[in-house]
Design brief:
The chain is mainly alpha-helical. Helix content is 75%, strand content 0%. It is built from five helices and no strands. The chain has helices at 13-21, 26-50, 54-66, 72-80, 84-109.
Length: 110
C-alpha cells in the first residue's frame, strides 16, 4: 500500500475494522480495502485539483509523480489553497462515512 502526502490527515481505521466484521474471505476484504484506498485517493485529488490554477495543477501533479510521499507537497498546497488540510479531512471523512454506511447496508442484506 502506498503512503501519500495526505496520509496523516485521514482516518480509515474505523472503516477497516468494519471490513474485518464482514463475512468475507481475506481476498475480498483486501480487495475492498484497496477500493476504499483508491476512492479516497481520487476524491482527495479531485478536491485539490478543483482548487488549483492550471499552472499549479501541473506543478502539483509533477510533485506527486516524482514523490507521492513528500511532505513538501503539503507545504506547496498550503501556499496555494486556503485551509487545504481541513478540505482534505472533510472530503475524506465524508467518503469514509459513506463507505461505512454501504458496509452496514451490505451486512443487513446477508
Amino acid at each position: 500500500n502506498m503512503a501519500y502526502f495526505y496520509a496523516k490527515y485521514i482516518v480509515i481505521e474505523s472503516l477497516l475494522s468494519e471490513l474485518q466484521n464482514l463475512d468475507l474471505s481475506e481476498k475480498e476484504r483486501h480487495h475492498l480495502a484497496n477500493l476504499a484506498d483508491s476512492s479516497l485517493h481520487h476524491t482527495i485529488l479531485d478536491e485539490i485539483l478543483s482548487q488549483l490554477s492550471s499552472e499549479n495543477k501541473k506543478a502539483f501533479l509533477h510533485k506527486l509523480k516524482t514523490d507521492p510521499e513528500d511532505e513538501k507537497i503539503m507545504e506547496f498546497l498550503n501556499e496555494k489553497i486556503e485551509g487545504v488540510e481541513d478540505k482534505i479531512k472533510k472530503v475524506a471523512d465524508e467518503l469514509v462515512a459513506e463507505m461505512q454506511k454501504d458496509i452496514r447496508e451490505a451486512k443487513k442484506v446477508k
